[in-house]
Amino acid sequence: MIPEQLVSLSEPIETDRTIRAEMLQGHRGRIENALWGRWIEAAAHLTNRWWCDLEDDPFAYNETASVSHLCSAATASGLLGLAEYASVKKWSGNRRYSAGGRCDLWLSDSSRSWAFEFKQLCCDRYNLGALAASMDAARACARCVRESEADLRVAGLVASMWWQDPAALQSARSTMRTFARDRDYAWRIGAEGVEEPETYVFFDIVCR
Predict the structure, then answer these.
(1) Of 207, 87, 198, the residue nearest 155 (C-alpha)
(2) Among residues 128, 185, 201, which one has the least CA distance to residue 152?
(3) How far is it, in rounded angstroms, from Cα 4 to Cα 8?
(4) CA within 13 Å, CB half, 159
(5) 151-186 per-position pLDDT tens digit
């Protein structure tokens, strides 16, 4: 349940281009389906505030800005969140060894915690190869997070359409939905019938 003092942060602001979250892929019955759904809905509502107040999209900058925005949304949805924190991780050259590093995002509710590693793409044209390569890189980073860091390790990919070539918009949307089919969870954050802001977020749970 969203704490009463935070409800106003996650209520939609009704305008002629209200930004909402559309779930593209998920696993019904899992705790992530409900909790992450509320989290991404809160991210959509906060993005709507950015658009209404500033005509800007916080997902259109870089990975660090997007993770910060997602962390704010997690708090608004009732989760605990910590972004870009120092952590001892498995060394990518040999995961039997440790090295200093940072974890992109840690989330928790009263029953489970998640450690996320993200990648971000902001392109004028998208293709499945670029999306797959970025998700593979996120998964590799997530595998370097120690198992003791959280109950589950998660690879995340943010794909912003802010810089998308308008002539290729429909093709890019089709590409995103095709890519979403093979993900554990995926959402579209955007308004209907407009070109921006529109963002896709994809998540894969890393088991080993």
Answers:
(1) 207
(2) 185
(3) 8
(4) 30
(5) 999 999 999 999 888 888 889 999 999 999 999 999
